[in-house]
Amino acid sequence: MQSPFGLAHLWSQGDFVTRAVALLLLAMSLASWVVILVKALDLRRHAAQARRTEAFWHAGNLAEGLERLGTEPGNEFHALAVAGRDATDHRSAQPQLHDSLDVSDWVTRCLRNSIDEATARLQAGLAVLASVGSTAPFVGLFGTVWGIYHALLSIGASGEATIDKVAGPVGEALVMTALGLAVAIPAVLGYNALVRGNKGIVMKLNRFAHDLHAYYVTGARVAAGGPKVVPLKKGA
Question: Residue 233 phi/psi, 5° resolution?
């Protein structure tokens, strides 16, 4: 026998608006968790790719270094190195309009474009979490208001306004607000965590781009401790 209280009773006794709100909250929750899990796995993959950048500088040549970065799809560090290489090759291929820029400015522009594209890909999906986190509580509140309104109508029609007749329907309606908060809180926490992780990856991309710029312009990497440059290792 179905309990006269609880979510099952709320679903069975609710009208189409109540059910639509519940389904909308469920869809928002599923969407936010999918984004959180997918983007978290992406951040873990990018972090592993960032650790390969030091191996790049110990390669014997550029081709070997690119191979050490990894060639799997979505490797932003490999794409950044390729963008710098292509910019250098294209700049010296034949006279074009961009020849009014020196090599340093041209490589900087291409590396910056690559970082901007990587940043856009890292941020893809975060709008879903921001939207869910900001709207889910109000969706749940709307379900609560609607449920209380219909509960009061049914209580008024029955003519019985005792506490046991009021507490059940109103309490069930208040569950919608709790569901809205349960959907919004993970979305907000996930959004903040992913934004922080993305900032870390972008910082590593910028650091790698700085070294790449020095290498493509001067043929050597700028050392971390000063202005001197360190050539790529010639051995394996």
Answer: -65, 135
